[in-house]
Specification:
Blueprint (H helix, E strand, L loop, with lengths): L2 E3 L9 E3 L2 E3 L6 E10 L2 H8 L8 E2 L3 E9 L11 E4 L9 H4 L8 H5 L5 E3 L8 E4 L9 E5 L3 E3 L6 H7 L2 H13 L6 E5 L3 H12 L4 E5 L3 H9 L4 E3 L4 H9 L4 E6 L4 H9 L1 E9 L13 H7 L2 E4 L7 H13 L9 E6 L3 H10 L4 E5 L1
Parallel strand pairs: 5-9, 12-13, 12-15, 13-14, 15-16, 16-17, 18-19
Antiparallel strand pairs: 1-2, 3-8, 4-6, 4-10, 4-19, 6-7, 7-11, 8-9
């Protein structure tokens, strides 16, 4: 089958191979025919080495498709079922799951270190290939644990379902679950790609009075206004906007959706005393945010990291579908570009330049 592979960490291009084979099918596992997958910034971060991931690997973790085959003991899905790929499934038995913090379950991360593909052709025959985050949806098929295959209703298109698999769930959940945005509040969102736009939609749903979108890319700022932002500004306009919107006090909620210490520091500085900073972006292990002990104590700002939307993933999927059906959130509009798998590197360029909110890779 075909798949897009990163040969070495640090390379900026993927190679399309047609000699890839899935591995690991057996009890408790399912084989999925991928129909659509989104390109998430986390894929680029893994390619660059910001997020740890063994190579060679197949990126992609935001996918949807059909069940082809189920292993022994699998009762949650059957061949022909439409599913969204969940890259962070809950095991249900670990301490985090028992506390109800299923987004902190580490079972899914353990899969990232086990190859789930191999090469079958030429001099590379038999060579292991990993799937990003234990999935690897830039491929025609994937084999994953049954818990990674979440059934979706027939009226949810594959491209919409793919977005729900990561970016939308992460952004909406940051506003609805982690921050629990209060009606009438002021919000700033720093970084307005697909995840940031989803956070904006979440803040709008909660009735935020002011939602300021902050992004260096003009097209993203223009898009943010269509999705619910009340203002859209470049980063250098943030000090003046803070003054005009909040009289210099700072915003009630600031969402950092970039994953860098510099923007996290900016987010902290623009959060009012007693306000809430929500860290949504996934950053590098060697990128440190510096805060002094006095300001940490004196400002009493809440710093809330938000992992995969900060709530029960399956419940979040259901909520997102319900909101989409009711017309309360726009998911179709998030898909600004579509490319076939053969043009995956075009999608990477669209993400890097910021022209795309989400590119759908049709497989």
């Amino acid at each position: 089958m075909r798949a897009a592979v990163l040969q070495e960490i640090g390379q900026d291009k993927l190679e399309i191979f047609d000699d890839i084979e899935t591995t690991g099918f057996g009890p408790g596992r399912v084989r999925i025919r991928v129909r659509a997958t989104g390109l998430c910034h986390s894929d680029l971060s893994a390619m660059a080495g910001v997020l740890p991931q063994p190579a060679p690997f197949i990126p992609g973790h935001e996918g949807a498709g059909e069940i082809l085959e189920v292993g022994e003991g699998v009762t949650s899905v059957k061949p022909g079922d439409r599913v969204v790929v969940c890259w962070l499934p809950a095991c249900g038995v670990c301490p985090a799951c028992k506390r109800g913090q299923t987004e902190l379950c580490l079972a899914g991360f353990m899969n990232a270190g086990t190859p789930n593909f191999k090469r079958t052709g030429g001099g590379s025959s038999g060579a292991d290939v990993f799937g990003f985050a234990g999935t690897g949806t830039f491929a025609e098929e994937v084999v994953v644990d049954a818990g990674c295959a979440v059934p979706i209703p027939d009226d949810v298109p594959f491209d919409i379902a793919a977005l729900i698999g990561c970016g939308v769930t992460t952004g909406l959940g940051a506003a609805l679950n982690t921050a629990d945005v209060e009606a009438g509040s002021s919000v700033a969102v720093i970084g307005c790609g697909g995840v940031g736009i989803s956070a904006i939609q979440g803040a709008r749903l909660r009735g935020a009075a002011e939602i300021v979108a902050v992004d260096p890319v003009l097209s993203r700022r223009e898009a943010a206004l269509k999705f619910g932002a009340t203002r859209a500004i470049a980063p250098d306009e943030l000090p003046d906007t803070k003054q005009s919107v909040t009289a210099g006090e700072g915003f009630d909620y600031v969402f950092e959706v970039v994953g860098r210490s510099a923007t996290a520091r900016t987010a902290y500085d623009n959060t009012r005393r007693g306000g809430t900073l929500v860290v949504v972006g996934a950053g590098a292990m060697d990128d440190f945010l510096q805060l002094n002990m006095f300001e940490l104590f004196f400002d009493e700002k809440r710093i809330l990291p938000s992992m995969y939307g900060g709530g029960d993933v399956l419940r979040s999927y259901e909520r997102t579908i319900a909101l989409w059906r009711a017309g309360r959130i726009d998911l179709e509009g998030l898909i600004t570009h579509r490319v076939p798998l053969a043009d995956i590197n075009e999608a990477l360029d669209q993400m890097r330049t910021g022209v795309a909110l989400r590119t759908c890779i049709e497989i």
